[in-house]
Amino acid sequence: MNYESRGLICKKNFIIDYFFYRSMFLPISTESRETMARILSGIQPSGTLHIANYFAMMKPMIEYQRENELFCFIVNYHAMTSNQDGERLRQNTLEAAMDFLALGLDPDKAHFWVQSDVPEVTELTWILSCHTSLGLLERSHSYKDKVAHGIVPNTGLYTYPVLMAADILLYQAEVVPVGKDQKQHVEITRDIAIRFNNLYSDVFTIPEPRISDDVAVIPGTDGQKMSKSYGNTIDIFEDEKNLKSKVMKIVTDSTPVADPKDPEKCGLFALYRLFAGSEQIEKMRTRYLEGGVGYGEVKKELLGLIIEYFAPFRKKREELSKDKGEIFRILRKGAEKTRQAAAPTLTRVKEVTGLSYAPK
Ligand code: TRP
Question: Under CATH, what is the fold of the domain 237-320?
Fold first, then answer.
């Protein structure tokens, strides 16, 4: 979509947001749109990714590329607020890029880049930070939580939401899929954009958060929500030996083989249904309800399914890791393409704010 037609979207959003502003009690719509939308989300390069990351975030993102304009990037500047080990940041960034590419992100269809390769974002961050009150940032839950947990905050952690606003507004994103914990950051982005548009002119598209549905919590090997901090993950590219030992250790209750079992209360079944086809799931559900199936057998079947599911991705991942030059080439090209999408917004911002001073 070109910049002129984006301007129309800005106007439309302005009208919508005027009323939104007047009636703050109206809920933000998180419903999916039917038309093609510009969807954007950033991913922290935080090391090894697990299957809950995959099903909750990466898989839906990768699917968006088919029918939408997808902007997907690795947020190494955000990671820097907590990771100040250069080698680790470099390594994690590359790993995250390889993971996405191996899992099917198509750099020809989507915009796919590393955040720091588009310097326009830091320029916009400064400009936005001059239009963001301290009070707005002081209300950030995520900042307050981190401080409450004893983290000594640096300025970057405090202005994290402004950088995130720049990420979103620079590309005129319409929809931002994020987890619940990031919803407030998208709301802060909206506040910043609305204020800026009102002050100068309709420069920014007002983005909508799309909050992933938490109903289907993906359990870890101990039955709690799968999370790196609980040490209960199954990683996407786990080697087969570790995978086997993790699957075999999945915690279950002690119902005897012959007795009926409740599939809805079983973490093992919840994992099984992520990988099995619908017929297999129904069959397994019936076997649970009727009794006669042992957890050991379910685990063996699950192990086979996981191996089969990730096999093509694993193969692609191995090929990619042997050809780092190709990854650098893809990321360089991705950054060039993305800078082109960023340029018109920054030019416009500089015009309306008076930063560009010479006549054209
Ligand atoms: N803060 C987000 C997270 O930790 C990552 C992020 C950075 C992001 N910039 C973004 C997400 C822009 C969506 C849009 O998950």
Answer: Tyrosyl-Transfer RNA Synthetase (1.10.240)
